[in-house]
Amino acid sequence: MAYDVASIARHFELAGKPEAIVPITTGHINDTYVVTENAGGQTARYVLQRINHYVFKEPVQVMANILRITKHIKSRVSKADPALASRQLTVIPSDEEPGWHRDSSGNFWRMYGFIENAVTYDTPESSDLACEAARMFGWFQGMLTDLPGSPLHETIPGFHDTPRRLRYFQQILAEDKCSRAKGAAAEIDFVLEHAALCNVLPDLVATGRMPVRIAHNDTKINNVMLDKNTGKGVCVIDLDTVMPGLSVHDFGDLVRTAACPAAEDERDLSKVVIDVSLFDALAQGFAQETGRFLRPVEKSHMVFGGTLITFEQMIRFLTDHLAGDVYYKVHREGHNLDRTRTQMKLVQSILEQEEILNGLVERAYSNSPNDAN
Ligand code: GN1
Ligand code: MG
After folding, report:
1. Hey, which of 70, 84, 212, 290 has its CA 20 to 30 A from 233?
2. Average pLDDT for residues 195-207, to the nearest whole number?
């Protein structure tokens, strides 16, 4: 759908006039544009996004969370490192609201300052990069351990409620509206055979053994920005799903996206395996920042978090494939099935190497700053 993004951009408090607007196509959910403004010869860039309200039913709650989170992080960082504080996400107010603009068709838009001289990577190009990205997500979780006020809104109810995801999958499979189940028999069987994975973490939470914290909940490696020159972490982005969640889910999504150099939709499955040295780098980076505050039960379930989140993602892609590609943006026929297959291969690869990976996490935490237990 084409939007009149130039006139939408004008609703935000920019110093000058929007000059160029370029779409960015990497995300699966929201629509993103880079806006360049010109204020008396000085240019500055901004990120304009349309919040997908099919996915986020309450965009105002999403933005209320993000305003609290970004202010809190900025104020914490500014005490220790003002230069870094100026490179955190900043929400630009609109002419009517503190953080969003609602257009005449009911779409919600928001704008952030563009973080210059920083880059994101879709795949881990080196162990150093994987380690630094993981450190940033651990840092982010640490930053939010003291967020004051009421709990954050649950922007997608049951987002990582894997048993619920499984039930929904079973419903869509029973309907098989697009007659695609036949072509995905092996993947469907795999999900059904591994269904017991879904209940482990909910049981630990229900019995009070695993704490619910504020988690990012979408810790894809490309949701962290690194300095272009030094490679050092600058900030964490894509805050739409920051809400109550589990630390192991955040580590798990990192394993899913950064412990394997292949793309999420790679068709050559021989390339899709967990790379032990990338995994080790992730464990070290994450442990460095979280060793101080995580409980032993969280540390000992990090590898399981990788299995679970990857399995959950497999269920989500397969469900969307069976439902006719209604949730994730697809760019070719069978795209969600290709994604399903990579996730399945990754789950198998984690399970095969579980013992080694658990040993690496244990070592990373025993070498990390650790004063909680
Ligand atoms: C979506 O927004 P994006 O592309 O970072 C999805 C994640 C999935 C991911 C799979 C709100 O993330 O949960 O893990 O795609 N976000 C939402 O690549 O559903
Ligand atoms: Mg996202």
Report:
1. 212
2. 98
